What does this fold into?
Amino acid sequence: MASNPPNLRPDISNPRLERDMSRVRPASQPTIGMVSLGCPKALVDSERILTRLRAEGYGISPEYSGADAVIVNTCGFLDSAKAESLEAIGEALAENGRVIVTGCLGAEPDYITGAHPKVLAVTGPHQYEQVLDAVHRAVPPDPDPFVDLLPARGVSLTPRHYSYLKISEGCNHACRFCIIPDMRGKLASRPHRAVMREAEKLVEGGVRELLVISQDTSAYGTDWKDRGSKAPITDLARDLGSLGAWVRLHYVYPYPHVRDLVPLMETGGVLPYLDIPFQHAHPDTLRRMARPAAAARTLDEIAAWRAACPDITLRSTFIVGYPGETEEEFQTLLDWLDEAQLDRVGCFQYENVAGARSNALPDHVAPEVKQDRWDRFMAKAQEISEAKLAAKVGRSLEVIVDLVEEDAATCRTRGDAPEIDGHLYIDEGHEGLSPGDIVTVTVDEAGEYDLWGTLAKTPART
It folds into this structure.
């Protein structure tokens, strides 16, 4: 799991959060700090909690010392994530002393209180009301109607020009290595109109890119008893694509109806980008994972997606060193990756997770073998990435600007998601750009994961 981004930590001040929340601040107003760990879905939960608190009159502190209490939104997906969460809780206790714990690890309250008995309260994932109740008990609200005016898009922990849009909670899969269904429950999709209303407000507030997230995005709406279509995600994607912002789909399982999403990408309504968790390619490994084991058919699906949308960017994640994985099975994964030629790839070494059924499988792989396979996998992925990016030299690409500094502007192409993919850098003529601008760039140079380019002569679209 990636470590927590510094700008989401209250001990490392977020300049925009500090600016937005400190304009008019009565000395008596109670303030809350937030540490948000884990995936973007947890980040959305943190934003919702902070938005509710802000509406009730709480100030949001960007540092421990300025907070009357600190909320730690934890991750519990892997043992390493649990360790990071416990460390963050301990740090907050040491720096502030008044700590409320929520999030995925909150589903194991005894595990948390056993390590940190002084926490004020522990709540589970997406238990917003319980978190607010805990804050009210620890730090009673003191609302002031003259200053407690909530911005239209609420409190955001991401830059102004992009936002995560969570469309459902939970998951109906039963992968042996995953405990997400145990922590977050079965699939529960948000109503179409509620998602669209939130998306419209975000775009009206200046968001240029909507990052659609869930545990299983392509299953959106399939839990509804009365639904107008077999695959409601297609209708939602079409409607989101009509708002004029970039729409990027994450965590899309390769169900057959994904083919209906791809034409939307070719016409420009949705970004030509699919983030699909394949996890492995050998059928025996996939069966031990309790995942669909038709890797050959997956290659056919990839070919169909590319035929329908030649510019599509495919991203996926994989696990190496899963219990029972043989060298032959791993080599099958390498060969499959060579044939699939995925554009963006992430890889994890298997870890036991308390409560996961995969812990009981025989033939666990030695740590040094897992490391060797990870190194070989990433070398192959890097080779593919380097070749694909080299083919973009000379092309004109549309990019969104994330950051403008003195020496360069950091941008992303339509095929790059924030935090997890590469960048395109403009190091000349970038002085007039601002975060959120969408401009056309001619690619001059390519590296292993990043591109460099110059502004094209076509006008910028801001």
